[in-house]
Structures are given as C-alpha cells and as structure tokens.
Amino acid sequence: MAGFIISARTICGIMCFFPFLIYKLRRRHLSIDESIEDLLQSHNNLMPIRYSYSSIKKVTKSFKEKLGQGGYGSVFKGKLKSGHHVAIKMLDQTKGNGQDFINEVATIGRIHHVNVVQLIGFCSEGSKRALIYEFMPNGSLDKYISARQEENIISLSWEKMLGIVLGVGRGIEYLHRGCNTQILHFDIKPHNILLDDNFVPKISDFGLAKFFSTDDSIVSLTAAPRGTIGYIAPEMIYKNIGGISNKADVYSFGMLLLEITGRKKAINALRDHSSQFYFPSWIYDRLCHGEDIEIGDATDDEKTIAKKLVIVALWCIQMNPVDRPSMSKVVDMLEDDIEVLQMPPRPFLSPPELPIDDTSFDTSHSETSTTYPSESRSCNSVASSTTIIKVKEN
C-alpha cells in the first residue's frame, strides 16, 4: 500500500512538473517576442520584414541547400518571390536567451552602408528564430585567406586584398562614427567578413555588438567579455591594460590584417621550432632590421601593399588601447603612400595582471590563441627604409 502511495505521488509530481516546464518555456519565448516587439516599435521606420516560419520553409525549399554551420546554428540559401537570393541563418534554439538575436535585428536593421551586410528580414515564432540577409555569393573572407590550391578557390591578389580591407575599415569607421549611436562590433574576424559577387566586403554577425553614446570614449560592459580568442583585444581579458572602447575593434582589425599578410602559411616551419613563436614579433623584427621576409615573390607594387598592411596592423595591435589609431586614422593610413607611414613601437607588453577569472569569459567563439612576449622595444626606422617583402605564390 505504501509503495502504491509513493508511486501515485511520483506520477502526480511528474504530471505537475511538465505543465510547469511548458509554462516556463512559453513565458521565456513570450518575453523574447515582447522584447522584439518593443524593439520594432521604437525603430518602426527602419523595420525589416517579418516572415512566418512557414514562409521561411518555402523560401528555402524546406532547407534544401545548406551554406554553412556555426556555433549559432545553420545558414541556408533561399530565394524570395522577387527572385533575389538570400542567406537565412537559423539560430540554434538551445544557444543563449535570445539577446544575440535581438542585437542582430536592432543593429543591422538600422544600418545602411555598402560595407555592412543588409538585413532583409527575420522570423520569430516561439523557439523558431531566423535572420534573412542579402546573399553573398563569394562567401566569407576566411576561406580566401586559408585557401589551398587543391581546394579550387581562387587566390586574391594583394591589390584585391587591399580593396577588401579598405572596405572593412570604412565599414567599422561607419559603425564607430557614422551612426546616431556608436556601435562596437566586438567580433571582427575573417569569418564575419562576407564578399559579394564583386568581392565588395560586408561586415556581418552583430550578435555581440553593443550600442553606446557617441560621446563615450570608454564604455562599460555588464556581461562577461565574449569574442574570438586571437582577435579579441587584450583589455577585454586583462585588467588594468586600459578601458574598453572602440579601440577593441581596431585591435581585431589589426589581427585580421596580420592574418591576411601571413595567409600563405610560409611561417609554419618557424612555428614548429618554438611554442612561443608570435608572428607580429617575428615580422616586426625583420622590418626593423631591414631583412627580407620570405613569404614569396611579387611585383614591387605588391611588395608595397603587403608592407603597408603589416605596418598598419602593427599600429592597430598595440597593447595599450591609447596607442592604437582610430579607425578613421587607420583608413587614412591604408590610403596614404607608404613613405609617410612611421613604424610603431613594438606592439606587445606583458599583461600587468592575471586574466579575469576564466569561468566568466565566454570562449565559445574561440579559434586560435595568441602568445604575448614579455619585452617591449621600439624600432627607430621608418616605413620608407629599404625593407623588402617578398610575396611568393604557392
């Protein structure tokens, strides 16, 4: 009899628990929907189109053509009634609380710039959330940086790469200074740079973006820092390096430039001989000493472009945010003749304190790690010295 009573109570408890769980989940989705509605009401003049989930299925032909997969979910190709192709990002319902989705709609939905991807519409029906973007036929920049001959991906010229990084720089400059509010992206990296059919770059993925007043030179983040290891600015991780500002995006842009410069992976042999090998340190030393950087053969114009990208990158990745240029200055440097560019100080210092507690740092976006050497020296030479950078095509 006692066993029967215990079993009955257990069954009763389970029957009560499931309705409560369903109620909580519904309340959670309702809260997200309410936040989205509040957002759209406050920006109704810039409101992107809202699609039903059934419309999303029709546009993608039941998710027939998958373009990619990431920590956020999956991207599918679709075609609107107008005949325009789109990329539809289906967000994983198990990731986050919907704030990244709201950030994306709030940010891209109000931006119109040639170097920022256009948000055409979105879907939010309970647990089903999707973002509909203009389709970028040439994919993301990362595949061109790491492309190998056997992958059958065209190799972009240094002139084309300069045009791409200039477009990215102008896009970031617009986010920092061209809007009514200052928008910090916090996740600039090659994977988040999309290329249209003419290889015009478009900044994408604003899930980590934050809005601040244009008067704010230093900003405050209430949540734990998030981003991609290897691109995230050191002040986002370490204490007392400097305040968080739009210079965090400048740092990430500098790391992007360095990855482009080392895209042929010609330094792997050196990397294998030292676990502490750090590409910015290696390339900085060679620029200072006027040594050849053996990354290939190229025309004089291509050598000049590669050298310019390195010098601008080394300015961008200065450890102290105050020492980094603004994105406006970065764009000017990329457009200037190389003869007027000065070499920066050695771009790394020992972090003054241990990093913030690792348990509070979100590394879900991590890709590569960065080693910071402990020395800080300056190079007195200027960019117009007789340094030769050789660019060798694989």
Automatic annotation (TrEMBL):
Pfam families on file: Pkinase (PF00069)
Principal localisation: membrane
One GO cellular component, as annotated: membrane
Region entry Disordered, spans: 352-379
Annotated ATP binding sites: K89
Bias type Polar residues, positions: 361-379
Domain Protein kinase: 61-349
Keyword Transmembrane appears in the UniProt entry: yes
Keywords of the record: ATP-binding, Glycoprotein, Kinase, Membrane, Nucleotide-binding, Serine/threonine-protein kinase, Signal, Transferase, Transmembrane, Transmembrane helix
Recorded family membership: Belongs to the protein kinase superfamily.
Protein name, per record: Rust resistance kinase Lr10-like
Organism: Nelumbo nucifera
